[in-house]
Amino acid sequence: MGRLEERNRKENLQKLILNSVATIGVLSIGLIAPNVMGAMSKMGILPKLRQREYISSSAIKLVKRGLLKFENGSYRLTVEGEKVLRRWQLSNHELKESRKWDGKWRMIIFDIPEKKRGIRKQVATLFNQAGFYRLQDSVWIYPYDCEDVIGLLKTDFGVGKEILYVIANEIENGRHLRHEFGLNS
């Protein structure tokens, strides 16, 4: 297995562990074994041999990174772990799309200063990966409600005052936007 494939497999395992902990609330290695290991093996995330060892090793790495904490024999998600999980979800297009478009545009405008350039790049990358349309350098458009996600993003990155969420009924020459998102009328 190549280095990129190995890194991807490890990242998928860590995401799966974080998602499992987030879903259940707490997770012990004993609970992981019967329920999750079979699925991980079928998905190619875990090799058939030494499954417990791989999971334990990944969980320990997540603890060292501050994303999980281990207490009383169980793993719990930390605040930082929740932030990372939300970023992964946003970057994996896990925004909920309504069945029917309500005809309103969600416009996200941000003015993040130069001294926070790294955060600005991360925010723009997340918007791009999540399927937002870049209208201008710091103006992004999305047709569905995403206010909760934007609120979490503001909190996670500490840019509450630098990001503005606008709901617009109409955008001049919006036909190309409707086409871009595959929306009728």
TrEMBL record:
Pfam family, one: PaaX_M
Membrane spanning stretches: 16-40
A GO molecular function held by the record: RNA endonuclease activity
Segments forming domain Transcriptional repressor PaaX-like central Cas2-like: 99-172
UniProt KW Cell inner membrane keyword: no
Record keywords: Antiviral defense, Endonuclease, Hydrolase, Magnesium, Membrane, Metal-binding, Nuclease, Transmembrane, Transmembrane helix
GO biological process: DNA-templated transcription; maintenance of CRISPR repeat elements
Coiled-coil intervals: none
PANTHER family associated with the record: PHENYLACETIC ACID REGULATOR-RELATED TRANSCRIPTIONAL REPRESSOR (PTHR30319), TRANSCRIPTIONAL REPRESSOR PAAX (PTHR30319:SF1)
NCBIfam families in alphabetical order: cas2
Protein name as it appears in the record: CRISPR-associated endonuclease Cas2
The organism of origin for this protein: Candidatus Zambryskibacteria bacterium RIFCSPHIGHO2_01_FULL_46_30
